[in-house]
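[Q] Does anyone have a clean structure-token version of this?
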Amino acid sequence: MTADPSGARSRPTFNPVGVILVCVAFLCTLGLVAVFSAKAAFFWKQVMGMGLGVAVGVIASRVNLEYARRHVLVITAAIVLLLLLVSIPGIGISVNGSRRWLGLGPVRFQISELAKIGLVFVLAHYLALNQSRMGELKRGFFMPLGIIGVAGGLIMLQPDFGTAALVGAVGVSLLFLAGARWSYIFTSICLGAGAFTLAVMMNPNRLTRFLAFLDVEGNKQGGTYQVYQSFLAFAAGGIDGVGLGQGRQQIYFLPEAHTDFIFAIVGEELGLVLTLFTVAAFALIFVCGLIHLRRAPNLFQYLLVAGSILLIDLQAVINIGVVTGRLPTKGMSMPFVSAGISNLVLMGILVGLIVNTRRAWTGPQELPGSRDFA
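[A] Here you go.
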């Protein structure tokens, strides 16, 4: 409610963070339903993951951000150490040829998920600290590019090219929002794209898998098998779906139905309407995030929230793009919906950080040196 000095009844104000929380609740509920239908054995694990996500989200919403900034070097060192540890045989857990997990008792945690948050926090801190020096070659280009490059490079070693690309895209976006020169941004994009292309082309099998999405039908028995099956799932679902637990694709043909391709199960069993609601929820998170950005009291919190929103929505865009055959096949979960504790914990922290910043924000601000499109 807005205060009225005259004593008249105050008007309700729009609460973008509240809308974001409603969208998150909808997506989490959808995830529980879809996971139960796809693989009931994972349902209670999903419930546990959501519980952990809520717990870490509450902690993230209450942590003193300025206190955390004073320990940014410790945070950076811890994340780099974990990314190095996960690459060591005997310590990192290898699944399907990729060494991305560390074991914590009965739970496996994907370290690259933690690295995403770490990159946003460290880069937001650095860019805010050097806000007046973004035009300098060293401070405005080499240093931030080094932060992005180290994070992306260590993730590519696992190998996890999709997450590395996501991290690079978010990092360059924060450079842009912080007011870096266009020449620095363009050069960063070219260097990142060049490194990614070189890494893909150096491995013939990887290149074949990467290009397979250009001909889904022709590669349906190979690199695009799951994408082709997801097409069949969407077609079978029609407008209102075939009903929960009635989908043939998730039972017989989609081995990753509960994780990377869960969007196809939503389409098959719940239909076009629910898939559109899912896309709309992510779109609302993005739009409300932009509105929320206008209230940032400083560049650090502005970039922290921008990075959090971008991590959520770009990951959703990549997942939907893969499932619908518009992007190369890449194992990347759908935020809040896919099964997986790492995914839910990461998303819980991101939402918690967004809620955290709301308490100190009052009204629209103009931040010198930043680009505001809200």
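[Q] Thanks! Anything notable?
[A] The mean pLDDT is 82.
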